[in-house]
Amino acid sequence: MTDHEQKILIVDDEPTIRQLLHQKLSKQGYHCEEASSSDETLDKMRTYSADLIMLDIKMPGKSGMDLLPELKVNYPATAVIMATAVAEANIAIQCVKLGADDYITKPFNREELRARVQAGIRVLELQGALAQRVRELEEALSRVKTLQGLLPICSYCKKIRDDRNYWQQVEGYISDHSQAQFSHGICPECYARFVQPELDRLHVQAGKVP
What domains can you pick out in the chain, each with its CATH number? Predict the structure, then answer.
C-alpha cells in the first residue's frame, strides 16, 4: 500500500458481496479490508483506520444502522456509505440523519459505485484541507500581537513611551508589539525638505574644489 492509496473497509455479512466489492474497488486503486459484522468492524478500525467504510445496513446482531452513530462519534474523519438491497427513501433519509455520508443500493452499478466512492473520498480531502487551513490560521493568530489603547508619543521626535517608561522609535515599538516589519524609504515631502537641499549643498561644495 502506497502513502497515497486510500483505504476502504467493506462491511457485509455476505462473503460474495464483500469479495465483489473488494475486487471492484481494488481495480479502482483502493486498498481494501473486509469485516463481516459490527463487532469485527470496530476491531478492524482500531488498527486499519479506513478512509471510507462501505457499510451494509442489515446484518445479524448489531445492524449497520445501529453501528453508524458509533462510527461517526469515534471516527468522524472516516466517510461512511450505507449499502442496502432495499431502495426506499425513508431508509436513505434515516441514514443521513444518523450521519451517513452517502447511500447506495444493491446490486452495485460499477459506475455509480465509482462515483459515490470518489465523491466520499473527495469530501474527506476537502475537509482535511480545510482543517489544515484552520490550524494554520489559528497558529498565525496566536503569534500576532495587537496594539491597543493610548500610545504616549513625543510631539517632536515621535518616539513612543513603552510600559517600562522607555522611549523608543516608532518602528522599534511597533516591531516589538506586532508582526510588522519595516523597510525604510523617503517620502517626497522629506526628500524636498531634507535630501535635495543637502544634495545641492554638496554640489556647490564640489564645484569649489580646485
Answer: 7-140 (3.40.50.2300), 160-208 (no CATH)
